[in-house]
Amino acid sequence: MPRNLLVPFYDHPADRPDAWETLIAAAPLLYGVVLNPASGAGEAPDPAFAEAAARLREAEVPVLGYADTDYGRRPHADVVRDLLRHRDWYGADGAFLDQVATDPALLPHYRRLSVAARAAGARTLVLNHGAHPDPGYAELADLLVTFEGTWAAYPDVRAPEWTLGHPPERFCHLVYAAPPGARPTTSVHCAVPGEAPHPWGTLPHLLESAR
């Protein structure tokens, strides 16, 4: 059974215990779960997130610590601090860098961040561009998120030719406001019913239908 669901689930475990139980029970389907206690690791450990992360790890699901990069504007040290806190507080064994630039001019910045993420213990590194980046980014991470947006906008997505030189499992689409039965075309994906401004407080349709 392929592990092809990358799930950003940003609701607190104490507020949505049943949903977290559903997520943990779906371990055989999960490429990874993005842990995001406070738009990052926060200022102090959160015991509920620590317990959820421990259970995911016990189920052999990669736990990806969320860190915002603000399209290259957030200082390197601040991003790395988030990654180290995720590792030390939640045992994160992966990293999910959000709001990643697509511009080739910022490749050196993100190359440094990818090296730092690996040094912080990230066995799985995901870059969320939300759009197709310069091909140079493909060498920096295990997975590139090349679409994040609504299902209504999704039919307009076209992959550039350079992506054909890479295995399909290197790319991911994150789709929200998606109807039941919606399936993104990438090998790794997530389609949720939630809408802006907080779409990632809902589970993927594939998991909701199994509850």
UniProtKB/TrEMBL annotation:
Annotated Pfam families: Spherulin4
Protein name from the UniProt record: Spherulation-specific family 4 protein
